[in-house]
Design a protein that fits this description.
This protein is an alpha/beta fold. The protein is built from twelve helices and 13 strands. It has two domains: about 120 residues, Alpha-Beta Complex (Aspartate Aminotransferase, domain 1), CATH 3.90.1150; about 220 residues, Type I PLP-dependent aspartate aminotransferase-like (Major domain) (Aspartate Aminotransferase, domain 2), CATH 3.40.640.10. A hairpin with a 4-residue loop joins strand 12 and strand 13. The chain is globular and about 55 Å long. The mean pLDDT is about 95. Bound molecules: pyridoxal-5'-phosphate. Pyridoxal-5'-phosphate binds next to helix 3.
């Protein structure tokens, strides 16, 4: 036998996703500020629900995640049957891609758009068309200029990772209004709960009456449950029904359903998490700017810091590592001159400020 099993065309051209680093050799408990997780951890209610779920982990989960579905629908004022649950919102993107893309179709997203959209699209033998983001922000006209008759899905993260930029409600409405009815607009609102900008709005109301909008949310960010993998999309009924045909039946675990449901009801934890970010994001931004670094405005729980070129960013990254701090190089997004830093606890933020102050002086 000379022929080895060959993956589908294009699979081996996909650059493997490199997640946030989680360890530093010789450092027992590094400060991990690389994946925009909630540095307060999960809330008390979610932890208690997770622990209580242990008595049921021998039982397959409810394939419809009914308890969580009803709770999420109630809290956001949505129709339960229009929700698609996934193993993180990443899985919702993958399911959308698998359901709507065939070879030669394309998705459109911003130049710095979240990588998860692209990976599974390429896995469907689709193309990825990137709209330029000269100001590190998805521009409506640039996105529309990429749309052609093979476009099936346009992805916008709002706010956006890794840049932290956001699109106003007006921009999202204009984008949707100009898209052909056959193209799905996915508005990824993973960081929605952190946004304080007055001209930002959730796209849930816009999606309510549309046949081609999917709004996604995650439990990995403000709810502090990244390790459990739970997210959902709010979709038109026909989209939800189509996706349900390929969705694996037990894609959200028993502890995932229980902890996520409890997290939704834990307003105190959400408030504390939001306040940590709204207090520290401006302080961290101001401090780093004071060292001569460019820090992009961010609507999320992280900031993108620009250095004088890729070498300087790599050196800063290494310096932070020597201080036990892990941040996120974003060369995979075409931003080798930048580092993304999650807003942490007070001690963590102070450690970042001290380390970058020292580094800036070198
Ligand atoms: C913009 C954006 N969307 C979605 C996700 C993924 O969320 P989940 O953990 O639900 O898959 C992330 C995670 O970093 C993100 O930054």
């Amino acid at each position: 036998m000379t022929d080895a099993p060959a993956p589908k065309p294009g699979i081996l051209d996909i650059a493997p996703y490199v997640g946030g680093k989680s360890s530093i050799a010789g450092v027992a408990e590094p400060m991990k500020l690389s994946s925009n997780e909630n540095m307060l951890g999960a809330g008390e209610k979610a932890r208690a629900a997770y622990e209580a779920a242990i008595k049921n982990i021998h039982i397959y989960p409810d394939g419809r995640a009914t308890k969580l579905r009803d709770a999420a629908a109630e809290i956001h004022g949505l129709e339960p049957e229009r929700l698609i649950f996934g193993n993180g919102s990443d899985e919702v993107f993958a399911l959308l891609n698998q359901t709507y893309l065939t070879a030669g179709d394309n998705i459109v997203c911003g130049q710095y758009g979240f990588l998860a959209y692209r990976i599974s699209a390429l896995g469907c033998e689709a193309e990825v068309k990137l709209a330029p983001e000269p100001n590190y922000k998805a521009e409506v006209d640039a996105l529309l200029a990429q749309v052609d008759d093979r476009t099936r899905i346009v992805y916008v993260s709002n706010p956006s990772n890794p840049t932290g930029s956001y699109n106003t409600a007006e921009e999202i409405r204009r984008l949707h209004a100009a898209l052909p009815a056959s193209v799905i607009l996915v508005v990824d609102e993973a960081y929605a709960e952190y946004v304080t900008e007055a001209d930002w709005e959730t796209a849930f109301p816009l999606a309510k009456d549309a046949q081609n909008i999917v709004v996604t949310r995650t439990f990995s960010k403000i709810h502090g449950l990244g390790g459990l993998r739970v997210g959902f999309g709010y979709a038109p009924v026909k989209v939800a029904e189509a996706i349900d045909r390929i969705r694996l039946p037990f894609n959200v675990s028993v502890p995932g359903v229980e902890a996520a449901t409890a997290a939704l009801a834990d307003e105190a934890h959400q408030t504390a998490s939001r306040e940590l970010v709204s207090n520290w994001k401006p302080r961290l931004t101001q401090a780093l700017r004071g060292f001569g670094l460019e820090v992009l405005p961010s609507a999320g729980n992280f900031v993108l810091v620009m250095f004088d070129g890729p070498e300087r960013a790599a050196a800063a990254n290494e310096y932070l590592n020597t201080k036990g701090i892990i941040v996120r190089p974003v060369g995979g997004y075409g931003l080798p001159q930048a580092l993304r830093i999650t807003i942490g606890t007070e001690d963590q933020n102070r450690a970042v400020i001290d380390a970058l102050s020292e580094f800036a002086a070198t």
